TrEMBL record:
Monomer. Binds 2 divalent metal cations per subunit. Has a high-affinity and a low affinity metal-binding site. The true nature of the physiological cofactor is under debate. The enzyme is active with cobalt, zinc, manganese or divalent iron ions. Most likely, methionine aminopeptidases function as mononuclear Fe(2+)-metalloproteases under physiological conditions, and the catalytically relevant metal-binding site has been assigned to the histidine-containing high-affinity site. A divalent metal cation 2 binds at D111, H174, E207, E239. Pfam families: Peptidase_M24. It comes from the Bacteria. One of its GO terms (molecular function) is initiator methionyl aminopeptidase activity. The keyword Protease applies. This is Methionine aminopeptidase. The keyword Hydrolase applies. Transmembrane segments: none annotated. InterPro entries: Creatinase/aminopeptidase-like (IPR036005), Pept_M24 (IPR000994), Pept_M24_MAP (IPR001714), Pept_M24A_MAP1 (IPR002467). Its EC number is 3.4.11.18. It comes from Streptomyces polyasparticus. Removes the N-terminal methionine from nascent proteins. The N-terminal methionine is often cleaved when the second residue in the primary sequence is small and uncharged (Met-Ala-, Cys, Gly, Pro, Ser, Thr, or Val). Requires deformylation of the N(alpha)-formylated initiator methionine before it can be hydrolyzed.
Length: 255
């Protein structure tokens, strides 16, 4: 069931989204050569504490997971696509890092992700990250009243495929509101004009995930959470929480 939010609820979600943006900004600023993923998780945790917000990631346990998630960020490095668990790994020059972060404030959730390169970038990684954000922008642009979920999926997939990248099968965006994951699902590839119509008050987490080697295949790490590319190529992830409104898409997870 898809919940249609009131304008007042959208404003409350904007405040939760602002905390998410603050957290991602703080993590990005703290991420440098020698920073540990666990230290970055603590940076994000401190943002939540100061805002009086909670984490929808911490202790989250979906049906596929063997254990509850132990952190407030997902930190996925290089060949990790999504759901990386922050540990004592210290970032090295040239690492490609994806950080996914959520916040819950006054009963409403926000969810967003960024990818960036630490230190000296490789041209191939720069292109991969830029394409992830271009795919996100295309998906957001298609998130308009009168369009359908398939229009968002098609816009994302067209950008990714045109650049020669893979899209991990079965993973994509989702509805969001009082819970981090709600209906509907938002695939990262699809046919235009298909799927649920978009209405004022729907809120979606739109999140392209790209595999640099061009294959759609991935495997699950031994931790039961992290998804990795099968060929060791790098991956990127970008995400915003977006409200569908009569005035056009409204990004809720930005400063």
């Amino acid at each position: 069931m898809v919940e249609i939010k009131t304008d007042q609820s959208l404003q409350a979600m904007r405040e939760a989204g602002r905390v998410v943006a603050q957290g991602l900004t703080a993590v990005r600023e703290a991420a440098g050569i020698g920073s540990s993923l666990r230290e970055l998780d603590e940076v994000a945790h401190e943002v939540l504490r100061k805002a009086g917000a909670s984490s929808p990631f911490l202790h989250y346990k979906p049906s596929f997971a063997p254990t509850p998630f132990p952190a407030v960020i997902c930190a996925s490095v290089n060949d990790a696509i999504v759901h990386g668990i922050p540990d004592d790994y210290r970032l090295a020059d040239g690492d490609l890092v994806s950080i996914d972060f959520g916040a819950k404030l006054d009963g409403w959730a926000g969810d967003s992700a960024i990818s960036f390169i630490v230190g000296t970038p490789r041209p191939a990684d720069t292109k991969l990250v830029e394409t992830a954000f271009a795919a996100l922008d295309a998906g957001i642009a298609a998130a308009t009243v009168g369009n359908r979920i398939g229009d968002i999926a098609h816009a994302i997939g067209k950008v990714c495929r045109s650049a020669g990248y893979g899209i991990p099968e079965g993973f994509g965006g989702h509805g969001i509101g009082r819970q981090m994951h709600e209906d509907p699902s938002v695939p990262n590839e699809g046919r235009p004009g298909r799927g649920m119509p978009l209405r004022h008050g729907m809120v979606l987490a739109i999140e392209p995930m790209l595999i640099g080697g061009g294959t759609d295949r991935y495997y699950e790490d031994r931790d039961g959470w992290t998804l990795r590319t099968v060929d060791g190529t790098r991956a990127a992830h970008a995400e915003h929480t977006v409200a569908i409104t009569d005035d056009g898409p409204r990004i809720l997870t930005q400063l």
